[in-house]
Specification:
Blueprint (H helix, E strand, L loop, with lengths): L1 H14 L12 E2 L4 E3 L5 E2 L7 E7 L8 H9 L7 E8 L7 H14 L3 E6 L3 H6 L6 E6 L5 E6 L4 H14 L1
Parallel strand pairs: 4-5, 5-6
Antiparallel strand pairs: 1-3, 2-6, 4-7, 7-8
Length: about 170
């Protein structure tokens, strides 16, 4: 009897996940919802005109995809055709916001080509149905369509796939 109720629930949970080839609903992070580390609002409508690699990260998992970041950096991609965004899931950690804010400001100075954004209340998790308390990687083409999506650590052939997709779509 319990199986009859569980199966539809499991099916409905998988319906909202990010899929290759889709355009995701617009997310705007501003004021109490978050925004750029520099204080301005950020909108996913900005994910057009260039190929964009987006990292949506729980601060506790901040190093999980360093191998991907390092490989992309080593590829020396043309920044006029490629951009990167790191959205920090501020509500996914026990760490105090002031400590995360300080670290993000340092990162923004160290990596000026990456846009750092804060999501204060899991707005991206709720709108895009990405994994919470994890590291999500989403690659968008110039029109804002999803080319690649992965929850968790991106490894080996997946890293090569991301770099190849970026180059092919620039």
């Amino acid at each position: 009897m319990h199986k009859m109720f569980l199966l539809p629930l499991l099916f409905s949970l998988s319906l909202g996940a990010v899929e290759i080839g889709q355009t995701l609903p617009t997310v705007t992070l501003d004021e109490e919802k978050g925004g750029r580390v520099t204080g301005e609002a950020w909108s996913s409508s900005e994910l057009k005109g260039k190929v964009h690699l987006l990292f949506y990260v729980d601060p506790d998992e901040k190093d999980l995809n360093n191998d991907l970041s390092d490989a992309v950096k080593a590829a020396e991609l043309d920044r006029s055709k490629y951009a990167s965004v790191a959205i920090i899931n501020m509500a996914a950690t026990w760490k105090p916001n002031f400590a995360i804010n300080s670290a993000l400001k340092s990162k923004q100075e160290k990596f000026p080509h990456t846009i750092y954004v804060k999501d204060m209340d899991k707005h991206v998790v709720n709108t895009w149905d990405v994994a919470d308390d994890n590291s999500d990687i989403i690659l968008f083409d110039k029109e804002g369509t999803v080319l690649f999506y992965h929850e968790g650590k991106v490894e080996g052939d997946q890293i090569n796939e991301v770099i190849t997709l970026i180059k092919e779509n620039m």
